[in-house]
Amino acid sequence: MAHDKQGRPLVAVTGIGVVTSIGQGKDDTWAALTAGKSGIHRINRFPVDGLRTTIAGTIDNVQVDPFCAPMLSERLAVLAAEEAVGQSGLATADFPGALFIAVPPVEMEWPQREALAKASGQQGDVTYADVLKAASEGRFKAWHDLFIFGTVADRVADKFGTKGSPISLSTACSSGATAIQLGVEAIRRGETDAALCIGTDGSVNPESLIRFSLLSALSTQNDNPDAASKPFSKNRDGFVMGEGGAALVLENAESAKARGATILGYVLGCGEKGDGFHRTRSSPDGAPGIAAIRDALSDAGLSPDDIGYINAHGTSTPENDKMEAMSCTAVFGERMASLPISSNKSMIGHTLTAAGAVEAVMSLLTIATGRIPPTINYNVPDPAIPLDVVPNVARDASVNYVLSNSFGFGGQNTCLVFGAEPK
């Protein structure tokens, strides 16, 4: 079968790649994830004195110069894409399709700002005009290019030879899932037979930590880093930042089969709903999250009973976990008491812009291996969230269809349905 029930081309996954704080590559990451290993640790990349949160799931074995979010995000994207494109069997330098890449918001970071201020030559207070004047000098052109939003996409596109203009996007914590959704839609419309979809984020830096701390979003349980992220637990107190990159090669299933590609699974459904309730908080009634889940199932041609596992957004914040549990219960009803749902963020932290793509890879590996990763640190159940969170230990199970949730700041809600085969 090459088309779904709506007559659209089926979208197959022929390559996946991932790098996280617990492993470089899908094999290492999956082994660590299913073993319940945490990659969250005390930050040693920069001084953390005076910060409320001093832990994160940073990727410390990948070095870039200059060390900043755009450069690290680019490198993580390249590592993940090399693995995914290599597995797909498509040309690694002449990719026959479009690039959709989720990247973190970009702005000049403190080391560069300080260098520009010093270079301005001004004594005492340095104005923004002074910094702009210094930046206009030729020796700072590389910094100017580096801190433009589309630069990461342009460089990745050049490396892999993708076709057309690369699409950069940033829809908060749902960005990685949105990149996949855009690839799916492009293939369904017949605009391309292949898409390279990436989510990447290397933005653990002092300014990010301070900003999230000001929102009271981060865990402050610094004394025991690997136990700080505890989704769905009663004693959860916020998310832990993480870094990561993930890539999926999507193809028109008919084209993939014609060239003899190995199909790893299918992206069967996408659901997206905006939530204008608040700039950071989710609507208390969960309506947009509920709608996104239902739309993803409808798009996939599935019923709630078909889903065998939910890869949760599961950030470990008090409000988000409650909202997600409520949204899932509204759709799946009494099944939520026994339907497995777990959060990868308990081990790798919240990889922000990359999260939807990282968790898509884990969803596909769940289908492929018949193994559900656990939610670690689940030692104090929340009676208000009576879910089967696959506590602390991975579980063997035959899973044909997975729902992967991504709920972001600013009301960005994107849900994806993956399957071993279309129904």
UniProtKB/TrEMBL annotation:
Q: Which GO terms describe its cellular component?
A: cytosol
This protein's pathway reads: Lipid metabolism; fatty acid biosynthesis
* Claim: Chloroplast is one of the keywords in the record: no
Among SMART domains, the record links this protein to:
PKS_KS
Instruction: Provide the Ketosynthase family 3 (KS3) domain boundaries.
Output: 8-420
The answer, when asked if Cell cycle is one of the entry's keywords, is no
Q: Which Pfam families match?
A: ketoacyl-synt (PF00109), Ketoacyl-synt_C (PF02801)
GO BP of this protein:
fatty acid biosynthetic process
Keyword terms, alphabetized: Transferase
- Family per UniProt? Belongs to the thiolase-like superfamily. Beta-ketoacyl-ACP synthases family.
Can you name this protein?
Answer: Beta-ketoacyl-ACP synthase
UniProt organism field: Microvirga alba
What broad taxonomic lineage does this protein's source fall under? Bacteria, Pseudomonadati, Pseudomonadota, Alphaproteobacteria, Hyphomicrobiales
